[in-house]
Every structure is written in C-alpha cells, then in structure tokens.
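A student in our group prepared the protein record below, which I am reviewing. Here is the record exactly as it was handed to me.
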Amino acid sequence: MADTLANVSNNIRSHENNVVNGKDAKKLNGTHHDVNPAAALAKVRHEFGEHGGVNMSIEASATFTVMDPDTLRRIFAGELGPENDYFVYSRHFNPTVLNLGRQMAALEGTEAAYCTASGMSAIAAVLLQLLSNGEHVVASSTLYGGTHSLLTHFFARTCNITTTFVEIADLEEVENAIVEGKTKVLYFESIANPSLKVANISELARIGHKKGVTVVVDNTFAPMVLSPARLGADVVVHSVSKFISGAADIIAGAVCGSANFVNSMMDAQQGAIMLMGPTMNPKVAFELSERIPHLGLRMKEHSNRALVFATRLKKLGLRVIYPGLEDHPQHELLKSIGNKDYGYGGVLSLDMGTVEKANKFMSYLQNYTQFGFMAVSLGYYETLMSCSGSSTSSEMNEEEQKLAGITPGLVRMSIGYIGTLEQKWSQLEKAVLKFINEKH
C-alpha cells in the first residue's frame, strides 16, 4: 500500500486533466486576473452515473472487492491504484470523494486536493503533516477561534509546537518572527475572521519562501474571490461547510496543494489524513459536488449585497468594516489581487460598541424585522449574525481578542441572498433606525 500511495501524485494528475498540472499552476501565479475559477471548474471531467445519469453515482462502499485474489496483493504493493480505478478502502481513497477533490483543486488552481470531514480536521492534518515536535509556526493574530486554540493550547501541550502571533499586515514583523531552521509554517487567513483584514498573499508568500517555510492559507471567507495558490501560497485549506456548501447543512473541509503534498498526507506510514482518518462520507461528497458548479453565482450575489448594505449602513452612521469600502485599509490590496467579477466577499462586520448593544441590535434584526438569524457560521442563503467576541472567537482571551482587532461589540454578518435586495434592505434599515432612535 505504501507504494500505491507513493504514486498518488500521478494518480490524481492522470484523471484526464481533471486538475491543473504543475506547469499550468506556475503560469497561473503570474496571471491571476486572467483566470476565472468558474472557467477552471467547467474544465473538470464530468462524472456520469453508472446507468447514464447526468449526475455521478455515489460510491457508498467502505471496502471494495476484487475479481482476482492476486489483485489485492498488487493494490497493497502499490502496483495498482486509483489511477486505474482500483480501490481498497474508503479511508484510503473513495471515487466520489476523489471527484470532489478534483473540483476543489480546479477551484483553487492547485495540482490536487483532498476533502475531509470538517474544516478543523483539514487545518489540523495539514499542520501536523508539516510540523514535528519542537518546531515553530508564525501565524496571524487574527484567526478563527478554533484555529487559534489549536495553535495556542493544543499543539503546545501535545506536540511542543509553539506559535508566534503577528500582525499579518506588518510584513517586517512577519519576516522577523520567522526563525530560520525552526519555523516551518507561515499560517494566515486570506480574509480574516472576523476583522476582515486582507492578507497580502503575494508578499507573504515571497517572505515565507525566502525563509524556507511552507505558506498555508485558510481561504474559507473568500472562495472565488481570492485564489491564494495562484498568488504563491503552498497549501490552501477550507471549511467547506461555509460558502462552498451554501446550505448550512454539511460539515466538511478541504486541503488543496501540490500532488506531492497530498500524496504525503495519504502515506500509509507518515500521512496525517491517512493515519488520523478524518474521512469524508461519499454521500456528503456527492452533495457538495452538485453545489460547487453554482458557487460562482452565489458568491457574486453574496458580495454584491454585502457591498450595497455596507455602503448604505455607513451612510446611516454605523461603524462598518468591509473590504469593499474605500476606507478599508486593504481595499486597494483586495482590488488588486482579487479575481475579477467576484467582489469583496460576503461578510461584513459592524462595531456596535458594547456586547449589550450588539445583542440588542441582533435581536431587532431577527425578532423585529426578520432580516436574518442569530447563528454562527457563514455562507448561508439567509443572513447569519453573531457577536464574535462572545461566540466564534470566545476561545481567545481579552488581550488576544484586542490584538486580533475584535472589539466587544463587533457583530459579524454573513450576508444572504434570499428575497430581493430592496426587500432585505428595508428590513435591515428598519432595525437600524429603531436602534438609533432608542436611548442606549
């Protein structure tokens, strides 16, 4: 089996141009504005069902049979594998999950991708693959709370892996924090949760590669909007549960990178995914593969409404944080590195001052005008809102939240697209005016 896995990079690459090959990936790095992720997705081989269905069949088997006894030996010896449709066990490889991986690789412009049971399992597996006992990470101070805890507490306790958190916009601070020979990973989010800071991916990748570290980017907030691998990132991770799923009904993750890296994660003796087993259910993979084709349409509408609402909320006097606004510190940066036509993302944040005001405002939005729901997560067709400091970033202490730019009254809003724009704006405006006109 070890030999079979050693050929995974070729296996994944050989599926009739299902993923971008290394040559094309290098070409894309310099021409990201000319590359439309939707066009890349359209080139992925369309899998048909076994009886000619326009949708592929779901391969729901945990284990696979062979017609000849010697075939199983040859599979485990690495002589046969997924490249010629020989499968042994779904924790190893599953045809339905592999198809979703090809779509994710095309979406991100990488050689290969592997899909996992959750976003956190993807992040943890990538970092454990890249890091050994006693090594070091440089990471953005503004991260999803679960990722921050993984780096701050869990890895330090279990693996003696330490992390230095930096202001990711300060390139000099980032470079100085990298300890040559000890630092192995530079980790950040393309658009940060929930501060919406935009990372200068190209420059950060340049610094990381100059220092000999692997650059890992969480692109959960910006699928279609940004393509980190085309800007120089080595590995791109996703919580597929969010925008890519789009229905708030699935937990899933993905790792996108070089075929060699995906191969290493599936190694029978050293592979973090293979050995820890965060396996995606093929039924989930099928569901997601049917949603990715319209991700581009959804992201355009998420982004369009977020920009309209952010602009109008600012005119009403609220403190709005959104990269699409010209006063956002990284507005021009995102404009220069983003993929054309996909806007500035579907999430905006409002600083309401205090947690009490934030909670009252969200209550008005949900219970008075029915604009959205008080719930964590994002990418849903309805608007979802939460007070980050007391929810998705609550793993961070007060000082860590302050360094991350998370104020007590910060409300993160994932803007949905249900209903008409003006219909939803009237609900949002009604709640805002009620809030403004009351004494606080």
Q: What stands out?
A: The domain at 295-437 is CATH 3.90.1150.10 (Aspartate Aminotransferase, domain 1).
